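Batch manifest line 113
LIGAND: adenosine monophosphate
JOB: complex structure
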Amino acid sequence: MDCLFCSIIKGDIPSTTVYEDDLIKAFADISPQAPVHIIIIPKMHIASANEINSEGAKYVAHIFEKIPEIAAAQGIAESGYRIINNCGKDGGQTVNHLHFHLLGGRDLGAKLV
Ligand code: AMP
Ligand code: ZN
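JOB STATUS: finished
ARTIFACT:
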């Protein structure tokens, strides 16, 4: 399967890892939109939020369990941050492997879109 983030998980494509365990990986976004911009992914290929099933939900839960730790390591736990998932065409999803953007390090404003 030709998936960019699966290739990053395998190590075939380099990334700057900031957190990793058996279930998930977090790495720096290649085109950061804020001083802190981390991509967090499950180590199971889930195409999008539309494809989350009961097995995938365990990975998603684990991602959210680890977000406070990842945010603290990035120095943004106190200042705050935004977590974004883009799903599908209208959601602006460009990589078809479920991922959450962790953004912070500046005032991101109140606008959602
Ligand atoms: P989305 O638009 O929600 O699908 O987000 C995909 C994100 O992946 C974008 O923010 C890209 O900058 C990021 N991205 C694409 N290729 C890489 C890569 N090789 N390493 C790190 N981040 C990447
Ligand atoms: Zn994948």
